[in-house]
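Worked example 3. Consider a protein that binds biotin.
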Amino acid sequence: MDSTVKDKESLLARLLEAGGEPLSGQAIADEAGVSRTAVWKWIKELEEEGYRIRSVRKKGYVLEGVPDILTPELIRKELGGDEFVGRILHFDSVESTMPIAHREAQEGAADGTVIIAEEQTSGKGRLARPWTSAAGKGIWMSVILTPDIPPHKAPQFTLIAAVSVCRAIRETAGVEARIKWPNDLLAGGRKVTGILTELQADPDRVKAIIIGIGINVNQDPGDFPESLQPIATSLKIQSGQKVDRAKLAAGVLRRLGECSRLYLEKGFPPIKKMWEEDAITIGRRVKAVTVRETLTGTAVGITEEGVLELRLDDGTIRGIYSADIEL
Ligand code: BTN
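Given these inputs, the predicted complex is written out as structure tokens:
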């Protein structure tokens, strides 16, 4: 038993832990130091939130079904005992999880703090583009990391995030996602995930890295705005079945913890190797559209800083720091 019941949230955690076995209302009331009526009210509130709970005479309460929402309790149940994930702040609807994460980081949030929302009304993409984040259809989250590294190494965490999400998608949803440099994930040739990395730093050290992850999970084609329909996809479209968002969110966070630890222990080389294995860009002829020019060549790899190396037709190697890549 991991949690003492003291409120509705810890009662839910206990019901989840019980794995379908009945929990005695009287035992919960005694443990929490409240009346049986108070326990009954928590149960009613959980039912109103979409949990299906059966009351079995003389035995207690049995959890029979959970709603499709990303509550901290559901994510934690899927995580098991993973130590990387700290506080999980869950919102129904926010403009964007990014400013909330920045505020939390400024107030000293610990490594592994997660901000997750069912819906973003003003989701942010790279290069100040909007990011469509429909209610209950995807995973829209920002993770706060506080590694002890100099600021020039922070972009490596974008690659850590891309590898983590790519592998979690494969493991949880069975979809073969691939990374398109720098940080898009494609499935079936269309964008299924975007990653936005932002930084709080002093000149010589990182204070916090905020990794914003947007995964299109359960949209049907018509759920995307018309302009996105030819270029966006979801895991449900790719796999033909609905994906459990709490399991996937937990999978991403578990992988992110593992890859961050690997990076802090062994440095960038193992991450670079994993990234190159998962990338669709490497070895391909690509067009890199930068603010100043358009270059065509073969993508040969990435550097320690995450810079894409392009071999141009005259054989010279050019480093691409920021560009839109067309395959
Ligand atoms: C991109 O590909 O342009 C990056 C998209 C990043 C979207 C995520 S969703 C969670 C977090 N909150 C935001 O407003 N943006 C990021």
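Take a moment to read the result before moving on. Residues 96-98, 120, 123-126, 129, 131, 133, 140-142, 184, 194-196, 212-214 surround biotin (CB under 6 Å). The longest strand covers residues 113-124.
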